[in-house]
Specification:
By secondary structure, this protein is an alpha+beta fold. Helix content is about 20%, strand content about 20%.
Length: about 270
């Protein structure tokens, strides 16, 4: 009993001493972190306080899509009419170099007056069911010098998809070789692809850009190989041929006509008959 009384008094005394020491500490130093110990004297518990919480980081991880079965890709020689482009650093090829912004334009198909090209690529063929998807967001693309493209109210179109949904080459009336292939892959990365409906490794004619797409690994490998070898050849694809899979619930699509961004909502041009 006497021992318990003694230790109780001792504990109170220690607590009071600690409070006095804290109160007498110089201003601003009461919560100062202790100086680090030399590595040889650090305790294992001290090191653990600096550990990253991997479960929190991993909670945003999405497993990659499974490869598309049964696909194969071939190369086609390029008709060279100018210098070899530096596609990675050219915003005409790599859309990731350009900014864009949300707009409040109508998120649906629109009707424009004027002529039409009966051979223009058709966006319903992006999808296996050839549907007109919903358009969750509409955007305005920027020029490389930092100003928005104002020729049309919308120059980038968000399309609703299912993650890992297979995406295909939009069908057109154009053919770039005797086998019936329709496009050259003029740029590809882990999250975007650019398809040109011509054979000149240029922006002449129509170029379609798709963002938020996981390019099929074998197509990605072929593009990188041919790009590194000087772009004398590039991957060539048929209409409706699979090219990759959506990585999110929204892909973003841009179409240019000889470098000029067009309105991807235009019914008479890209959604004919819908």
């Amino acid at each position: 009993m006497r021992n318990g009384w003694f230790w109780g008094i001792a504990s109170v005394a220690l607590l009071l001493a600690g409070l006095c020491a804290w109160a007498s500490a110089p201003a601003g130093s009461a919560w100062a972190a202790p100086l680090p110990l030399p590595a040889s004297e650090q305790h294992f518990s001290d090191i653990l306080t600096h550990t990253l919480y991997l479960p929190l980081t991993a909670s945003n991880y999405r497993p990659p899509c499974e490869p598309i079965l049964g696909v194969s890709y071939t190369a086609l020689s390029v008709v060279r009419e100018g210098p070899v482009p530096d596609a990675e650093n050219d915003a005409g090829y790599n859309l990731g170099l350009l900014d864009y912004e949300l707009t409040y334009a109508y998120p649906g198909l629109v009707d424009y007056n004027g002529g039409e090209d009966p051979s223009a690529p058709q966006f319903p063929f992006l999808f296996g069911d050839q549907r007109v998807p919903t358009f969750p967001n509409v955007y305005r693309l920027y020029h490389g010098w930092g100003e928005p493209v104002t020729d049309w109210p919308v120059t980038m179109l968000g399309m609703a998809v299912t993650r890992c949904e297979v995406l295909q080459v939009p069908e057109s009336g154009y053919r770039i070789d005797q086998q019936g292939q329709q496009v050259l892959v003029i740029y590809a990365s882990e999250e975007r692809i650019a398809l040109n409906y011509g054979r000149k490794d240029s922006l002449y004619g129509y170029t379609i850009y798709i963002e938020n797409v996981s390019v099929e690994p074998s197509l990605m490998a072929l593009y990188r190989q041919l790009d590194a070898a000087g772009r004398y050849e590039l991957p060539a694809l048929f209409g409706s041929q699979p090219l990759g899979q959506a990585t999110t619930s929204e892909i973003r699509v841009v179409i240019r006509d000889t470098g000029a961004a067009m309105d991807p909502r235009s019914r008479k041009d890209w959604w004919r008959g819908r």
